[in-house]
Q: What sequence folds into this?
């Protein structure tokens, strides 16, 4: 594979491709549509990505990177008590979905359900994303334990995983109902229960 | 649309189509592949279904119907205390995923994430499925309240929704990790917490 000639083209392919994948799914998005959306010749796709799967791994990395950059600081905000940070964090993520009118879902969840059966690389990337996501939450939960906000007997790793799973299921329901109500319910009943 | 001539052909289209949709997703499954898998001429598809979306609605109905038939009785088993029935129910569903080696996911969740953006009919069907699923669980939770197993202050409808959302997120993670560990964690930590 030749070295990418133009980082702008690469970025555009990733951006337009992520849009398409979010809207119609990965399996239904062809390389031709991605290059057409980015306004570049079809053949150039393979100057930047070895395969559509390699592209999916990069799209996931970009998506997770931007989520972590936008909302990760909420979990590390030392001015705020740790459990409140967790609430603020999920409120931020819910707001992200609201701005997309609950129509797109979470690219991590979408890829998890659609792409893992066919791509070992995407699955491996998702395992990493899940681990990083869990660790960011578990760090904050451990701070909550240190400050006696959370029982020291709680397994923070398992709790972090449960928070993510519940949230991803909530995103799914919000997408079906095209409504923010599932997020309200998550914040009002599920979070307090899991964090008690 | 002419009246379906052969119910066996219709059933075979639904069965083979559901397999394909589970494995590669709905958007990437063409009518031609469905008819080829069922061993019938392509044109006959439209004798049985008005459109691919109408087909998706039927596939969902069949899937949900068989899940309800197989596992629903666990929620209504009068010999067992209601909260234990909820545990048995989700254990049954987890076992279903285990038998599929965690590779397929839940067709309800898959369709929720992949198909809702493009099909109002599928979205409407999913709203119905979610409602029926929630009601089946909420009925059992109300029995738990009547028997003082569950605090009468709990909103059973909201709790049922939270159980479903958490479970669907767990299915997602199990698919990524190709492992039953997320289900163990759901049963050991999340369920007791939500049902406390």
A:
């Amino acid at each position: 594979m030749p070295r990418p000639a133009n980082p702008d083209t690469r970025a555009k392919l990733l951006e337009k491709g992520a849009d398409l994948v979010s809207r119609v799914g990965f399996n239904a998005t062809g390389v031709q549509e991605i290059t057409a959306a980015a306004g570049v010749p079809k053949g150039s796709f393979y100057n930047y990505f070895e395969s559509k799967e390699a592209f999916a791994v990069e799209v996931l990395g970009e998506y997770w990177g931007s989520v972590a950059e936008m909302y990760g600081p909420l979990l590390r905000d030392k001015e705020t008590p740790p459990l409140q940070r967790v609430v603020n964090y999920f409120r931020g993520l819910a707001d992200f979905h609201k701005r997309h009118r609950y129509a797109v879902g979470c690219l991590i969840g979408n890829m998890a359900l659609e792409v893992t059966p066919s791509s070992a690389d995407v699955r491996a990337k998702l395992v990493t994303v899940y681990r990083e996501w869990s660790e960011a939450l578990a760090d904050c939960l451990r701070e909550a334990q240190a400050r006696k906000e959370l029982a020291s007997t709680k397994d923070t790793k398992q709790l972090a995983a449960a928070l993510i799973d519940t949230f991803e299921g909530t995103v799914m329901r919000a997408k079906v109902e095209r409504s923010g109500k599932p997020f309200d319910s998550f914040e009002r009943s599920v979070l307090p229960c899991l964090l008690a």
